[in-house]
Amino acid sequence: MNAAADSPAPTFADIEAAARRLRGVAVETPLLSFPELDRRTGARVLVKPETLQRTGSFKFRGAYAKLSTLSPEARRRGVVAFSSGNHAQGVAAAAQLLGIPATIAMPSDAPAMKLRNTRGYGAQVRSYDRRRDDRQALAEALLEETGGTLVRPYDDRKVTAGQGTCGLEIARQARDAGVRLDDALFCCGGGGLTAGAATALAELSPGTAVYTVEPEGFDDTARSLAAGHRLGNAPDAHSICDALLSPMPGDLTFPVLQRYRVQGLAVSDGEVREAMVFAYAWMKLVVEPGGAVTLAALLSGKLDVRGRTVAIVLSGGNVDAETFCAAVCTA
Amino acid sequence: MNAAADSPAPTFADIEAAARRLRGVAVETPLLSFPELDRRTGARVLVKPETLQRTGSFKFRGAYAKLSTLSPEARRRGVVAFSSGNHAQGVAAAAQLLGIPATIAMPSDAPAMKLRNTRGYGAQVRSYDRRRDDRQALAEALLEETGGTLVRPYDDRKVTAGQGTCGLEIARQARDAGVRLDDALFCCGGGGLTAGAATALAELSPGTAVYTVEPEGFDDTARSLAAGHRLGNAPDAHSICDALLSPMPGDLTFPVLQRYRVQGLAVSDGEVREAMVFAYAWMKLVVEPGGAVTLAALLSGKLDVRGRTVAIVLSGGNVDAETFCAAVCTA
């Protein structure tokens, strides 16, 4: 057994294996250019719209990569997950495709579209109160009740390997287009997408600088990376980015981000709304608040990208029409 | 001089030449799959989102293909166009890229986004009243005043060749994906996109059946194709599809549609709104009313596509936020 196999973090080979399992199931999202975005930023920006991914976010990649490796016995017992919505939909859709029962606990204030779709993919949804209920106790009760396998949203080697296929595709698509990437920006909750993608980029595009982007108030990863150890967020923090409200960097993910010298950026809710409006008006893409943070970072000048070639992921598009229209109609 | 060069209709070679001129300027839009769309229709649907095209619609292809062939002297004199908005933006953006002055007459009730963007690309916009003003007289006055070249939206060989590059890409992308296309659906105003695309498909994918989709009340092409000669629309017809309100099939385009045995479909405003909502919820794409007619035709069952492989073009995404949100928020 080699060292890599002992590590909880995904290796490049893990990501390649996940990509093979996802072939023909996940959408290979394109890498798009938008002249107006290049004009505004002074950069060449390549946009990876994971909004077009199955279930409307990159989370499907990690969920299917994990579930497709479960044994027949584990599949029969089913899976359990906790999520405000994108991981929930990813797990539910992957479970449906594989014929696995899924029980998913979601906060009662999750966006209606995320709740509806998770049920639509056939999962049993258990609602809990984000403030009152003890999530840990609920998890233990659900696991005991169902006998199922817990599918963590980021602190899981196979899940992060699956999420990393997004970075693998970026590196290969950029190479096929004859482009050298200077920077790559990823949204960050627990850090699974960035950890997986940074692992892929380190192998295929080692000169690319990797950045996380978080909402202000939930910039635990940015502060942790700067401090050199994991820090949490203030308990009263608030953001419209419902997908990115993780309490602190992951056990598995944080050392990976450190290893690849990832740096952290943060954006305000106002900057996120402006990015959603820009995506509506100039990219014709529906992007949810948490999915728009990388675009918000570029448009608000959080990073000097003039003259550089930059890849960004728009990580999800599952936003209730009322929330979306409140942003784009008042602009 | 060969026969093809005498014909006002574009040849396959014209479309290939236009594609070469558009390389690196127009966006090669992807051909996307959406599992929920396949599930709803029972077909394998390949979606070409020209919403992601430069200026937010396929019209840029035709405009740039035309303007890039003008002589230095004609470029100096400038170009003139009439358009409710997508051709206007296409011509304005192409003219800006090529350093050509553009004067564009637009109806005063065109969507605000289309008016704003056309001006944003540097064109002089002249507003006219769709009902009161004599468009022909206005055209002659503008041409005399500016000495410019009139860029017609569809009855022009080079414009339709440029628009046909959309069909060329569909045929090549489907072939690269190992897919045989049974059907291809295009929105239809004057018929330029369909005429160009049908010409490309006849060469590269001759077994593919081609359909136009129009708004009810503006289904002049469907009725003309059925009758075997050109027919107009009732003068009091009304539709939310502002991009598709052409009075009758084009001189150039109609014989091309007949030659390739194109058939015509029509959809109601309600079906268009439902398609816009579907695109929002399941495809995360912003599609304008006229851009959603092909999707509307599939979702409302205008064509039995079960078990078939079908390409559709989402032709544009330039829709005012108020109009968009009125459709998606009341669904």
Beta-strand content bin of chain A: 5-15%
Give the strand order of the largest sheet of chain A, numbering strands 1, 2, ... along the chain.
1-9-6-7-8
Total DSSP E strands of chain A: 9
What oligomeric state best describes the polypeptide chains here?
homodimer
Taking all Cα atoms into account, the compactness measure Rg of chain A is 18 Å
What is the H-and-E element order of chain A? HHHEHHEHEHEHEHEHEHHEHHEH
| Unreliable residue runs of chain A | 1-6
Overall pLDDT confidence of chain A: 95
Estimated helix fraction of chain A: 40-55%
Distance between the termini of chain A: 57 Å
Task: Tell me what you see in this structure.
Two copies of one chain form a homodimer. Chain A has 331 residues and is α/β, with parallel strands linked by helices. Chain A is 45% helix and 14% strand. The first copy, chain A, is built from 15 helices and nine strands. Chain A has helices at residues 3-6, 12-22, 35-41, 59-67, 72-77, 86-98, 112-120, 135-146, 157-176, 192-204, 220-227, 253-259, 269-283, 293-299, 321-329; strands at residues 44-49, 79-82, 102-107, 124-128, 149-150, 183-187, 209-215, 263-267, 309-314. In chain A, β3 (102-107), α7 (112-120) and β4 (124-128) form a beta-alpha-beta unit. The longest helix of chain A has 20 residues, at 157-176. The radius of gyration of chain A is 18 Å and the shape is globular. Residues 1-6 of chain A have low confidence and may be disordered. The A-B interface holds A 27, 30, 32-35, 49, 51-52, 54, 56, 113, 280-287, 317, 321-322, 324-325, 328-329, 331 and B 27, 30, 32-35, 49, 51-52, 54, 56, 113, 280-287, 317, 321-322, 324-325, 328-329, 331.
